[in-house]
């Protein structure tokens, strides 16, 4: 097929849009929790879309590549945030001045959700060595667990300031990986490798995760949506088994087991 340059460009743009909005059709039955959410794109798509432009080295779409150690070892105590004598896990943070007060409120609300259900407490940094620096960088991403020193948690103003995404990235910073990379995931989901760009296949590799004796959780906020990284428009990269109709990739907020795992991991 021969096309004029402008037609090719248009096609490229359209393809780009398909890639960027692969889950519109399944995003949900009007379950948007917040009025400002403009469409029904699910959280995974939103994160991946927001991250298309980033020049950070990202794993699985939104995990910062560890510079000093393998992320799989992150379940050792050294990658966790420490519990203070008052029984709370105090996590110091700073917030970039690039955020407006309204945007700060959104982030604050995301953090408060951890306060109300776990022993995690986010506190403004005084002079602590280890802390989370919340910044408006080119995407939604975080390091895995506590890395030591300043660690960036990026929430791009345009694409990441949604309650579910904020919680998802914070959960990474607490040490949690994506649900579908769990060591036992093959019993619960099928990865459709034929629908995944081979260069992106590493995003679906299993990890040696500590599952804390908790069940596989389709409703986890850490679970990818079913067409994440799919190169076949509308086709699943992840299919729940045996029931393919189970919903995955929700973005409303932490599930029962998401909360339970934080409490288990940190001994809340
Ligand atoms: Zn993630």
Question: How are the SSEs ordered, and which strands pair?
Answer:
Elements: H1 5-20, H2 43-50, E1 58-59, E2 63-64, E3 89-95, H3 101-117, E4 120-124, E5 131-135, E6 140-142, E7 150-155, H4 163-174, E8 189-191, E9 238-240, H5 256-265
Parallel strand pairs: 3-4, 3-5, 5-7
Antiparallel strand pairs: 1-2, 6-7, 8-9
Bound molecules: zinc ion.
Zinc ion binds at residues 62, 168, 172, 178.
Folded structure, characterized:
The protein has one domain (43-266): Collagenase (Catalytic Domain). The protein has 5 helices and 9 strands; from the N terminus they run H-H-E-E-E-H-E-E-E-E-H-E-E-H. It has helices at 5-20, 43-50, 101-117, 163-174, 256-265; strands at 58-59, 63-64, 89-95, 120-124, 131-135, 140-142, 150-155, 189-191, 238-240. A 5-stranded mixed beta sheet has the order 4-3-5-7-6. The termini are far apart. Bound molecules: zinc ion. Zinc ion binds next to helix 4.
Q: Which residues form runs of ≥5 with pLDDT under 50?
A: 1-5, 7-39, 67-73
The count of helical stretches stands at 5
In total, how many beta strands?
Answer: 9
In CATH, the architecture is 3-Layer(aba) Sandwich
Helix and strand string, N-terminal first? HHEEEHEEEEHEEH
- The whole-number mean of residue pLDDT values reads 81
Pfam family, one: Astacin
InterPro entries: MetalloPept_cat_dom_sf (IPR024079), Peptidase_M12A (IPR001506), Peptidase_Metallo (IPR006026), ZnMP_hatching_enz (IPR034039)
Binding site for Zn(2+): 168, 172, 178
EC number: 3.4.24.-
